[in-house]
Amino acid sequence: MARNTHHLIDAYRRFRNNTENVVLATIIETLGSTYQKAGARMLIADNGGSSGLLGGGCFERDLIEQAHTVFETENPKTLFYDMRSPDDAVWGLGLGCNGAVRVLLQLLKANNDFHPLNRIVEASESDTAGILATIYESDHPDYSNGDSYFLTESELDVLSQQGNTPESVAEAAKQTWMQHKACLKTCEIDCYAVKLFFDLIRPPAQLLVLGAGVDALPVVQFAKALGWRVTIVDHRPGYVKPERFPAVDALLHLMPEDLQERLSLDRFDALVLMTHSIEYDERYLRVIATSRIPFIGLLGPVHRRDRLLDSLGADAPKIAAKVFGPVGLDIGAETPEEIALSIMAGIHAAMKGRTGGQLGI
């Protein structure tokens, strides 16, 4: 998922408890260089409080001002911020960001469980992926600006299961899913041209850490700050104490041979092996070799990685291409916190198809 979804979920729970209406600001289109891309979201309260960041401070103040109109009229509103002019005469910010964003503001009502944000939260909590389609421009008498449709991944496979979703919208959602990219599309509904924003909603990334030593704690902390779900497994019962890892989503005492039986390994996006025991690393790695986990990180030098792979024998070629050892980016890390930063940066870069070099070179 998501970008900044984990912050929205926390804010959603707060607003839900207070039963206050909120305005959801969503970037639906970007041009040029922008702080956030399409699909980034921000919540705005009636008192001017907010959660999330869309422009790095460039236009948030104006967004909050514009949200007051949405609170008053209850009508969605689309805004266009063009910061490509070096003078930035419109906003008076002089930012020179060389980008533009289109933002949709829509009122989320407490008596409607803050739809469609509630669907995003439900998808996150149930590990469900799908497409959220939101109308931002329509003259159709029955399909209004702000109307949203959430189609799960399984529903996208069978268009007949879409319920009240117009067929053209369901078909466009399926195309968006196949293209793996948020976009704007125009759908024909009863001879009306209806414009929608289609966004991919994915569950949080899942990290499996094998080894619950002291150095695993900062890895967990960085991963949770990114909104990831983290599972820790260790073969030593004395290490598997909830008070040691209060933020972790699951903490399990398992021997390597029980790993496959107790966990659905294929659901994890990345794994870091950090038992600091060559014997247990070998045993865990032998089980992992049959999984489809796309990223396997190993601690220690290259010759340790090679020894672990050699121990797998015929199974080594199955995972060699997705084994990263030593895991992490070369940032000169020395302390546990620096090493954890290196590890998480390396995993994030690999998941995004990047190498992790300097942006300014």
TrEMBL record:
Residues 18-82 form the XdhC- CoxI domain. Residues 207-347 form the XdhC Rossmann domain. It comes from the Bacteria. It holds the Pfam family XdhC_C. Coiled coil: none annotated. InterPro entries: MoCofactor_Util/Proc, NAD(P)-bd_dom_sf, XdhC_CoxI, XdhC_Rossmann_dom. This is XdhC/CoxI family protein. It comes from Methylotuvimicrobium buryatense (Methylomicrobium buryatense).
